Q: What sequence folds into this?
């Protein structure tokens, strides 16, 4: 059984099909990359998985159970967490509070957990212990993205959806982010990443799904995708980056 | 049959007024993003100025020529000063919506207070075109028909304005997507203030038309604002044609309910409001 | 609540000072200063509705214009039962009835964008006024009712009790994880929803709880004014005042609305006994517009800003 599975996922905005008959799956323990040109529907797919939107028609199943129709907080508590393309932190709250909220509300088994301790551990995990009490809004973009990751991890997910956490980063920050994804993966969390930075995707993913204009056009290992003619066509001009 | 005509035609007649009032609010909220709680107060001022002028011999219909531009200018200036000031200081559109609405609430009390000081709290009325007209066996007073005709005419003129002039297109662009419209060269601050001004002008004009048919009170504004609120939800927030149609629908329903149980009209509007919010919040023609 | 985490010294100061003030207030009627009792009753009344309004609208940013509706329900609860049931039971009825109405309103509107909530609560006052007016005229054949008068002291003590409960509830909500949830909803609702906060239920419950106090004071104020009818019971000014006081005072902490309420109640007293009696709606309206434009964080915000500048700190404020 796949950890996450989508069948015939479709959604229209106005008259346009943002996603059209997309089938996909994610297995436990994988790092899956989701790529495609701008507007291909990648974030929309994340929105459908996290229940920000509902597929019409289509089915999404998590651990064998249908999850479309649920509310976002329910999907989160079931074990799917995400970050956002445009960072959505609570800027006036301290960094640690941002993460604590995840601990307090996001995990399904809310035992007598000490949320503050958990939050501190997670901040250490992402390398932000020294800004724990600073207002989240004052951080650099790279650090804000890490707070979002820590917050998502605080909800104890089995599946983590990362939406372009590497955009806008310099070389050093990029390597650190890739290392972070690796660490998360080693912790046992299944990860799906949306990225435009080809080097990163090829470096960390076991499998890649390619979208274009709302349809899935290719799927396979990084090697296969690099050599796929369809994908190269779609990414005309980016051939220099792919595989470097 | 007579009852049916009474409700249908009577409903359309008052519905025309509701449409005009609601289009005004639709412009102010749908485009300029201010939920103008004081909208009914502009209506009330229009009604009372008409009354005051009528007392010295001015034909009420002529007063429209005065009220519409004056209200437009007042609305325009209010938006350029108060609401733009709030918008500039608001960190995001949500805060602007809340603060704009609260400022409008403040405006409501300011205008009410002024009106009560000038005209007091008792009802005022005057006679104008008081003869009855027979339509298919149902009797209607001429002034209501004239008022409705004017309201519809203004609606049509405004629709043509929106559809065919450059400014009209700028308004439609700003209604759909203010950010992009701004990038395309539309002077957004000016256009939004225009819309607010037009909305006030429509309210004032509706006030003139109402004073022709019914007695007026300085407290009459709130009721019309509430009706306009339900209409713009019914028509769809952001849709001006939707509020035009919605006005007639609510007019008919209100008239029907009034025949059955006068005094439950507002309750019936709220039943519609509740059904809308539960089943189809974006209304008939809404795009949000 | 984790008791080992409570900062006892801080609690001593934050609770100690109010406790002392409370004791002083508790003995107020014994000072023989009748005017003081009525004045402080007014203070307490406006503090209660401003603090309860802020509980929900200040935290989440969803502006409620329904305060007058819940207040009016409290008044009518007194009108219906005040002559037959003990006062504290009627207060409970008023509170519970308001809770139920607020819950229903919340369930209908808080699933949607904030503007629908504002629009719906805005018209609610008019709706209730007309429905009760209809019911009185058509079904009951009466016009207005009389409520048994209670002494100024009784009114004062009830208001004091409700005030204490309101402040406690406001404080507990704010310091608990639900306060955090509300803040997260207010700052970015989508993020809150995706972080596991049941945003809709949190909003509905908080709104309903805040309504309880508004209904409760409605009951008490009816026993003070004794004559009730739909127009006096359902008055938009009662939706406006708490918003004005909370915004002027500052919604960043629970004392902001208290400050705003005291200041504006005092201004109202002065205006209503002076030559500007007929201008008070105008003045209040203008003051709200001015506050929104020039004092967006309220008086408390201004004071906090000045304090920080004096201390020379450079970091942005955290909500306290």
A:
């Amino acid at each position: 059984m796949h950890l996450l599975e989508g069948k015939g996922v479709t959604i229209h905005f106005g008259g346009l099909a943002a996603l059209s008959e997309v089938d996909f799956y994610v297995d436990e323990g994988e790092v899956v990359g989701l790529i495609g040109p701008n507007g291909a529907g990648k974030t929309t797919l994340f929105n459908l998985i996290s229940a920000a939107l509902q597929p019409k028609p289509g089915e999404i199943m998590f651990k064998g159970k249908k999850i479309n129709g649920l509310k976002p907080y329910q999907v989160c508590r079931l074990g799917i967490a995400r970050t956002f393309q445009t960072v959505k932190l609570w800027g006036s709250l301290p960094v640690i509070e941002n993460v604590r909220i995840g601990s307090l509300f996001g995990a399904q088994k809310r035992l007598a957990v000490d949320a503050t301790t958990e939050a501190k551990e997670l901040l250490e995990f992402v390398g932000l212990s020294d800004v724990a009490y600073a207002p989240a809004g004052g951080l650099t973009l790279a650090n804000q993205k890490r707070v979002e990751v820590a917050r998502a991890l605080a909800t104890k997910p089995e599946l983590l959806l990362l939406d372009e956490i590497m955009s806008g980063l310099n070389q050093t920050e990029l390597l650190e982010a890739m290392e972070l994804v690796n660490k998360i993966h080693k912790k046992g969390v299944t990860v799906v990443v949306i990225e435009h930075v080809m080097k990163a995707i090829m470096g960390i993913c076991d499998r890649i799904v390619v979208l274009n204009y709302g349809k899935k056009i290719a799927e396979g290992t990084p090697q296969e995708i690099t050599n796929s003619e369809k994908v190269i066509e779609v990414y005309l001009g980016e051939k220099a980056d792919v595989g470097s | 049959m007579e009852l049916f005509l009474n409700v249908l035609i009577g409903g359309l007649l008052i519905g025309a007024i509701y449409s005009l009032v609601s289009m005004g609010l639709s412009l102010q909220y749908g485009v300029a993003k201010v939920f103008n709680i004081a909208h009914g107060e502009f209506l009330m001022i229009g009604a009372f100025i008409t009354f005051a002028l009528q007392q010295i011999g001015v034909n009420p219909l002529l007063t429209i020529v005065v009220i519409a531009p004056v209200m437009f200018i007042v609305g325009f200036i209010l938006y350029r000063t108060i609401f733009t000031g709030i918008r500039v200081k608001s960190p995001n559109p949500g805060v602007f919506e809340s603060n704009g609405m609260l400022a409008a609430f403040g405006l409501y009390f300011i205008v009410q207070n002024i009106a009560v000081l000038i005209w007091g709290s008792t009802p005022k009325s005057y006679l104008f075109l008081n003869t009855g007209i027979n339509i298919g066996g149902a009797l209607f007073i001429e002034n209501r028909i004239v008022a409705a005709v004017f309201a519809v005419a203004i609606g049509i003129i405004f629709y043509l304005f929106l559809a065919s002039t450059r400014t009209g297109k700028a308004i439609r662009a700003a209604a759909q997507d203010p950010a992009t419209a701004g990038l395309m060269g539309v002077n957004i601050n000016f256009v939004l203030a225009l819309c607010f001004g037009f909305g006030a002008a429509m309210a004032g004009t509706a006030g003139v038309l109402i004073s022709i048919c019914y007695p007026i009170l300085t407290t009459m504004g709130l009721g019309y604002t509430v009706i306009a609120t339900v209409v713009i939800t019914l028509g769809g927030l952001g849709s001006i044609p939707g509020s035009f149609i919605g006005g007639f629908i609510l007019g008919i329903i209100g008239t029907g309910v009034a025949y059955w149980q006068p005094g439950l009209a507002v309750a019936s509007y709220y039943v519609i409001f509740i059904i809308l919010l539960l089943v189809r919040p974006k209304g008939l023609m809404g795009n949000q | 609540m984790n008791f080992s985490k409570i900062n006892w010294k801080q609690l001593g100061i934050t609770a100690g000072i109010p406790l002392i003030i409370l004791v002083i207030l508790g003995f107020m009627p014994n000072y023989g200063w009748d005017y003081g009792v009525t004045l402080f009753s007014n203070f307490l009344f406006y503090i209660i509705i401003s603090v309860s309004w802020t509980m929900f609208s200040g935290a989440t940013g969803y502006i409620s214009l329904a305060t007058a509706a819940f207040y009016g329900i409290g008044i009518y609860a007194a009108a219906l039962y005040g002559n037959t049931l003990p006062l504290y039971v009627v207060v409970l009825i008023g509170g519970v009835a308001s809770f139920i109405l607020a819950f229903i309103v919340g369930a209908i509107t808080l699933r949607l964008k904030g503007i629908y909530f504002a629009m719906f609560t805005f018209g609610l006052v008019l709706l209730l006024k007309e429905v009760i007016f209809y019911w009185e005229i058509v079904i009951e054949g009466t016009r207005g009712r009389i409520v048994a008068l209670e002494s100024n002291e009784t009114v004062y003590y009830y208001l004091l009790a409700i005030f204490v409960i309101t402040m406690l509830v406001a404080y507990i909500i704010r310091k608990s994880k639900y306060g955090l949830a509300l803040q997260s909803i207010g700052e970015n609702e989508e993020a809150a929803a995706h972080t596991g906060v049941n945003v809709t239920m949190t909003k509905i419950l908080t709104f309903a709880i805040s309504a309880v106090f508004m209904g409760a004071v409605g009951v008490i104020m009816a026993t003070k004014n004794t004559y009730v009818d739909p127009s006096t019971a359902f008055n938009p000014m009662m939706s406006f005042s708490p918003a004005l006081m909370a915004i002027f005072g500052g919604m960043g902490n629970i004392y902001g609305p208290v400050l705003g309420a005291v200041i504006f109640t005092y201004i109202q007293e002065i205006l209503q006994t002076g030559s500007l009696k007929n201008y008070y709606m105008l003045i209040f309206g203008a003051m709200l517009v001015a506050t929104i434009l020039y004092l967006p964080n309220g008086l408390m915000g201004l004071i906090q800003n000045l304090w920080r500048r004096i201390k020379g700190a450079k970091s942005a404020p955290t909500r306290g």
In short: Chain B has one domain: 2-221.
